[in-house]
Design a protein that fits this description.
Layout: E1 2-6, H1 10-22, E2 26-30, H2 33-42, E3 47-50, H3 59-69, E4 76-80, H4 85-93, E5 98-101, H5 106-122, E6 129-131, E7 134-136, E8 143-145, E9 148-150, H6 154-165, H7 173-180, H8 189-203, E10 211-214, E11 218-221
Parallel strand pairs: 1-2, 1-3, 3-4, 4-5
Antiparallel strand pairs: 6-7, 7-8, 8-9, 10-11
Helix pairs in contact: 2-3, 6-8
């Protein structure tokens, strides 16, 4: 997993960082609310470990900005010394997925993160995909962009759904072709023409083009599409 630790206590952060990294996870860290929010918005993580008493911006405000303003659904585990029922309920009401009171076992932290990740990936096929003002319901295939219903051909819909499942991550031409067509295409023109159609349809709704081309590498959906 790729895990973000947002904790201002350097000793606690270092212990978490080393323990999770030794388990094979890719770990990043921030020591204040503003830096943590920036990383959470601009990078893709499988889980976030969050302290509530952060300098610059509280953990509660950070969660509110992630959930209500940016529609980021990354699982969040709160680690806090605040141990009352009211504290825990406030954390959950602001978007936390789990809550552990300090002091805690590092093994339990790791176990809870794995459980959160499994629950998140297990429900991915059922929940609406949301990236900024762009949303896609995997069940009904209904797409909305900047509040407008978008009608897309099946192949364009398949490309968009693939990119929306990994916002901010680069998806290669080969991966897109195998996922959408079932095999590699003879030329790049097929994928290019469908991407052109997809982009043109989305921008016709009044929004900006949310898809970035990385020449020779692949494509990605901007992690916080307009």
């Amino acid at each position: 997993m790729r895990i973000l630790i947002i904790e201002d206590d350097t000793t606690i952060a270092a212990n978490l960082y080393d323990f999770l990294q030794n388990l094979g996870h890719v770990v990043d860290a921030a020591a204040d609310g503003h830096s943590g929010l920036h990383l959470a918005l601009n990078e893709t993580f499988d889980a976030i470990v969050l302290d509530l008493g952060l300098p610059g911006m509280s953990g509660l405000t950070l969660m509110q900005k992630l959930r209500q303003e940016s529609y980021i659904e990354t699982p969040i585990l709160i680690l806090s010394a605040r141990d009352t029922l009211e504290d825990k309920l406030e954390g959950f009401n602001h978007g936390a997925d789990d809550y552990l009171v300090k002091p805690y076992s590092l093994k339990e932290v790791a176990a809870r993160l794995i459980a959160l990740h499994k629950r998140s990936t297990g429900r991915i096929t059922n929940r609406t995909l949301q990236v900024g003002t762009l949303s896609l319901d995997p069940k009904t295939k209904a797409v909305y962009y900047v509040g407008e219903l978008v009608r897309l051909p099946p192949k364009c819909l398949g490309i968009l759904e693939l990119l929306m499942r990994e916002p901010g991550q680069v998806v290669s031409r080969a991966d897109i072709e195998h996922a959408v067509w079932g095999e590699a295409q003879e030329t790049s023109d097929t994928l290019r023409s469908h991407l052109h159609m997809l982009r043109r349809t989305l921008t016709a709704m009044g929004g900006q083009d949310p898809i970035e081309t990385l020449p020779g590498i692949g494509y990605r959906l901007l992690a916080h599409a307009p």
